[in-house]
Design a protein that fits this description.
By secondary structure, the protein is an alpha/beta fold. The protein has helices spanning 2-27, 44-59, 73-86, 102-110, 136-150, 167-180, 198-211, 223-235, 251-258, 270-285, and strands at 33-38, 63-68, 90-93, 115-118, 130-134, 155-161, 186-193, 217-220, 243-245, 265-267, 294-297, 300-302. A six-stranded parallel sheet has the order 2-1-3-4-5-11, sandwiched between helices. Belongs to the bacterial solute-binding protein 2 family.
Length: 314
Amino acid sequence: MKRQKLIKLIFLLIILSGTFACSRKHNNPSSNKIAVVISTLNNPWFVVLAESAAQKAKDLGYEAQIFDSQNDPAKEAEHFDNIVAMGYSAILFNPTDADGSVLNVKRAKTAGIPTFCMDREINSQDAATTQLLSDNFTGCVKLGQYFVKQMNKKGNYVEIFGLVGDNNTWNRSGGFHSVVDEFPELKMVARQSADFDRNKAMDVMETIMQAQPEIDAVFCGNDAMAMGAYQAVLAAGKADKIKVFGFDGADDAIQGIADGKIAATVMQFPVLMAQTSAVLADEYIKGKRDFDTKTPVEVILVTPENVNKYLPKK
């Protein structure tokens, strides 16, 4: 009787051991899955970033899935929980918040999943494997210099900036103001966030114009907001009086410069950032561990003088 109980106990332990082993195997990162986590797909620029990253990962032989955080840190955290549980081998990441996203990246790192930040950075030197970032500050220094010339060093302007928790917002704003603030006759009469969103920017600009009828220009922290601001300016019958400046190099903004609607923008290279992130993730998966903390990507000022070089292909 005792012998039968012992045999049953051993058999039970074997089953439990197998179940535990399967569970551990399920949670270990797979070698053929890469997650692409994007702050929002409600912006054509980020759609290009997401699709370019996913396609490059597929070209390198991986399964790739895009996760849309919808500019919601809670949804982003949920994505990371699922990615860790499903055993992805790397994450190509466009954060929602420079501070709030750090814990998500650290949680993935603890699970053995490397994260490669694209376009937006997090405020940590060691959580992500590397961060590929446009040179936002320098780009907006160039934009600020062009802005000063176009304004003849005087006039009233508005700033519409992006997400408060995104470092790109303040790097772009900081670069712009490092130049423009040196000219006392250039006066900022209003400043407000529109969360990098086109529709919000249109509403914000409409409200500002009601309170501030004498406006000569608007500097927007991205092209989606610039196009929204332009819609508001056009509807108010002031398209010939208010110059609109953006940042990103989105196709509609580039075409807008050619059509005389947008004064200038700064072109980023989302495809380059996305593809490079996928290549670096592939290198990590294959054994490389020596990565720079940050990898800067050059940007280009686009104006009516050089826009023909950058017009979208039809």
